[in-house]
Design a protein that fits this description.
With 272 residues, this protein is α/β, with parallel strands linked by helices. It is built from eight helices and 13 strands. The chain has helices spanning 29-46, 72-86, 97-104, 120-128, 146-154, 181-186, 216-226, 255-271, and strands spanning 18-22, 50-53, 90-93, 109-112, 132-136, 161-165, 168-169, 175-176, 191-194, 200-201, 210-211, 230-236, 250-251. It catalyses: D-arabinose 5-phosphate + phosphoenolpyruvate + H2O = 3-deoxy-alpha-D-manno-2-octulosonate-8-phosphate + phosphate.
Length: 272
C-alpha cells in the first residue's frame, strides 16, 4: 500500500506512524465534527498522517436493542462532510457486499470487520471498488493466515491493502495482543494495531462489551516499539455516554498527551 495515494492524507514525509481515529459509530454530525476538529488539530501539530474513523452502522451488536446507527445515508453524508471540512481521508466498516459500492461513494478506506474477514465475497467487493481496504485480523485467526485475506484483495487487482490487528481471543471474555504477529503481518501488508478494540472484554453476561481503557497507553507504546506502521484508536469526548464501545474508548482529552509520547518513542525507534 502506498500511503501517499490516499486522498487528502497529510504529513506522509514525517516518517511517523499513521493514525486511524474517531468515534466507534457516527452518532450525529455535531459529535463527528467536534471529534474530527480536535484530532486534526493534534495530528497536524505532531505531523501524524491522519484518517478519520467512524462506523456508518454497527451490524455486529451483542443485543437486538443495541445502537446500530442513525441511518446509513445520513451517517455516510456526515463522513463526507468531515472529509470536506477538514481535508482528511475517512474510513468506515462494511458488513454486506452491497455496502461496498455504497460506502465507496463517501469514504476513502473500506474496513472489513474482524468477524467477517474470511468472507470472500465481501473482501472482493471492497477490493473491486478500488478503494484502500483495511482488513481487521479475526480474533480467531493467526497472523500467518492473514496473508490469504491480503491475497484476495491483490488478486482482485487492488494493491491498496493493509492489515489491522485487534487482539486475539483469550478465553471467553478477554483479548490479548501477541506482538510477535506484528512483524509477521508486515511481510504481507502495512500493519496497524487497533489499540482500543484489543482491550475489549466481550461476551459479558449483560450483553454489553466491557473494556480496560486504562491500558490504552501501555498497548499503544508497545505497538510503536514493535514497529507498527499505524495505530487505530477509538476516541470520544464522553466515552461513558457513547452509544457504542464506550467501555474501551479513549477520552478525547487524553489523546494529545498519548500521541505526543508515541511520537517521541517513534523518533527514538527511527534513530536505532
Amino acid at each position: 500500500m502506498d500511503l501517499t495515494l490516499i486522498p487528502n492524507i497529510k504529513h506522509t514525509s514525517a516518517n511517523n506512524f499513521f493514525l486511524l481515529a474517531g468515534p466507534c459509530a457516527i452518532e450525529s454530525e455535531e459529535m463527528a465534527l467536534r471529534i474530527a476538529e480536535k484530532v486534526v488539530s493534534i495530528t497536524d501539530a505532531l505531523q501524524i498522517p491522519y484518517v478519520f474513523k467512524g462506523s456508518f452502522k454497527k451490524a455486529n451488536r451483542s443485543r437486538i436493542d443495541s445502537f446500530t446507527g442513525i441511518g446509513d445515508e445520513k451517517a455516510l453524508k456526515i463522513l463526507k462532510k468531515v472529509s470536506k471540512t477538514f481535508q482528511v481521508p475517512t474510513v468506515t466498516d462494511i458488513h454486506e457486499v452491497s455496502d461496498a459500492a455504497m460506502a465507496a461513494e463517501y469514504v476513502d478506506i473500506l474496513q472489513i470487520p474482524a468477524f467477517l474477514v474470511r468472507q470472500t465475497d465481501l473482501v472482493v467487493a471492497a477490493a473491486n471498488t478500488g478503494k484502500v481496504v483495511n482488513l481487521k485480523k479475526g480474533q480467531f485467526m493467526s497472523p500467518e493466515s492473514m496473508q490469504h485475506a491480503v491475497k484476495k484483495v491483490t488478486d482482485s487487482g487492488n494493491d491498496q491493502v493493509m492489515i489491522t490487528d485487534r487482539g486475539t481471543m483469550f478465553g471467553y471474555q478477554d483479548m490479548i495482543v501477541d506482538f510477535r504477529g506484528i512483524p509477521t503481518m508486515k511481510q504481507y501488508a502495512p500493519t496497524v494495531l487497533d489499540v482500543t478494540h484489543s482491550l475489549q472484554q466481550p461476551n459479558q453476561s449483560v450483553g454489553v462489551t466491557g473494556g480496560r481503557p486504562e491500558m490504552i497507553g501501555t498497548i499503544a507504546r508497545a505497538g510503536i516499539a514493535t514497529g507498527v506502521d499505524g495505530l487505530f484508536i477509538e476516541t470520544h469526548f464522553d466515552p461513558a455516554n457513547a452509544k457504542s464501545d464506550g467501555a474501551n474508548m479513549l477520552d478525547l482529552n487524553r489523546l494529545e498527551k498519548l500521541l505526543t509520547d508515541l511520537v517521541a518513542i517513534r523518533k527514538t525507534i527511527n534513530q536505532l
